[in-house]
Amino acid sequence: MTDRAEPSAYVRLAIAQASGLLPSDRPDAEVIKLNSNENPYPPSPRALAALRSIGGESLRRYPDAFADEFRRAVSAELDVPPDWILVTNGGDALIDLLVRACTDRDRPIVFPDPTYPLYGHLAPLQESRAIPVPFLPSLDLDAAKFAANFPLERLVEQRGALTFVANPNSPTGHVLPLATLRQLAENVAGILAIDEAYIDFTDAKSAIELVREFDNAIVLRTLSKGYGLAGLRLGFGVANPALLAELWKVRPVYAIDAISARVGAAAIADRVYKVARVRSICQTRDGFAKFLADRGFAVWPSGGNFLLVRPPERFGSARSLHEALRARQIWVRHYDSSRLKDKLRVTIGTEAQMSQVLGAIDAISKST
Ligand SMILES: Cc1ncc(COP(=O)(O)O)c(C=O)c1O
Question: Which residues sit with their C-beta closer than 6 Å to ligand 1?
């Protein structure tokens, strides 16, 4: 046998040196899983009926590359023309596509910090630079102050080829006014990607109207959160067709399979179902926030299907509460970073699940 190089020698240095992003843990038993911001409710019955209706013929053939059935449904829902919509395998694939299309050694990626980790994670794979811009002055509890303190100028100064802003933001849950996003679109050097993965859970206005005003703005949406279809892997970007034409060059032609396009179209068309489920989640979220605040937790105002909370001292640390909940089969998210390690992000489950979480928190509190 001839001597072979290490497998890492076959890939680009940037890839060999990358650590890779691990998915969040998957449970092997019945647990209350509140660590990935999944929707606790099943998808629309109309989406499930569409799934059952798929026959062999539509699987034998290559799918419609443009996913036009799905784009028509989105177009009707959001009142944008179909050619302003680019469909991807979840929001993550759109983020990846933007990073591959827009960034390299001289073209950095800019985002407020803390936010969705994927934005920064993809930079080294492109030999690009991730520039996190910390929220000012700290993670302020007051929503109005937070918006006023948003580091707009410092984001602009970095001259990113690609600036990501999640609105609502994860894990903080904060929501920015449209005026702030408009200022960003006007002033950033390159593309402004407004990630509206959680927009269904807030009354705040979507930034979709900005894509009509600014040719450098793109809005990201997903069916993973409001529509309860994280397993389907379907998302899309809304932007002017000239910008999308550049991104189309990067997307694999048949990325969207026939099943996802059909099921996604049915889900989008069932607005009544989505709104009802989202309303339940928001009610549960607001009740849960009040319960935790009554027990001394700091609770960040949230426009998402999750809450960022800081447990009071009697729980020891956020990590120890995380572990104690986990021992009771309740999984929430804990982050190691210095600004977040005293906090937990808790996805909002069903009313029944959150009652169990509250019971567990009271029991842990008594035992500490
Ligand atoms: C802010 C944000 N953007 C995008 C995504 C990607 O979602 P998906 O790839 O499931 O569409 C997530 C998922 O958690 C998210 O939190």
Answer: 37, 90-92, 116, 166, 170, 195, 197, 222, 224, 230, 235
- What is the rounded average pLDDT of the residues 34-63? 97
Q: Is 145 found in the same domain as 229?
A: yes
Q: How far is the CA of 91 from the centre of ligand 1 (A)?
A: 5
Q: Find the mean pLDDT for residues 177-188.
A: 96
Q: Which of 122, 170, 220, 268 to mutate to test the pocket of ligand 1 (most atoms within 8 A of CB)?
A: 170
Q: Is the pTM of this model over 0.85?
A: yes
Residue 359 has pLDDT above 90, yes or no: yes
Cβ contact 113:133 at 8 Å: yes
Which parts of the chain are beta strand (E)?
Answer: 32-34, 85-88, 109-113, 130-134, 162-166, 191-195, 217-222, 235-238, 298-299, 306-310, 330-334, 344-347
* pLDDT computed for residue 28 by the predictor: 73
CATH of the domain at 360: 3.90.1150.10
Instruction: From the CA of 230, give the closest atom in ligand 1.
Output: 10
